[in-house]
Amino acid sequence: MQKLIKTVTLSLALSLAGGCSYVGVYKRDLPQGNLVTQEMVAQLEQGMTREQVKFVMGSPLLEAPFNANQWDYLYRLDEAYGGVEQRRVTLTFANDRLVNITSEGNLSSDIELPSYEGPGPATEGTGPDDGIMSPQPTTPDGPTTTPGV
């Protein structure tokens, strides 16, 4: 009986000690939102139309639901083993023209996003079928040819 108690106690102690050990967890940087740079904001000028702003900045992450004249471009980078960097640019329109630019965060610092290789989804343009041309459309009489080719 004592041998059984010693065996159970030893097994329990080893299990508890093994469960308390630190095993590192793999973390990745987590970028979210629209990446906004100082160069992009420098291209903005008061009086630009919404379409011109979209050409420079892209579509806004947030359009205020109760104020259609305000666009917000947010960017947040949660570094795996570091801090959090946040950037925000708020654009205000009047009569469909840009009238105010407000920014928060350090837009002038460069952000280097590492290219992740390994398990996980591939980035666009790096798939195994990228070098393969799509087949030409066919008709019931056979493949369609392009004149002059």
Automatic annotation (TrEMBL):
Region (Disordered): 108-149
Domain Outer membrane protein assembly factor BamE: 33-101
GO biological process, one term: Gram-negative-bacterium-type cell outer membrane assembly
Chief location of this protein within or outside the cell: membrane
Annotated Low complexity bias: 117-149
Subcellular location: Cell outer membrane
Keyword check for Signal: yes
Entry protein name: Outer membrane protein assembly factor BamE
Gene from which this protein is expressed: bamE
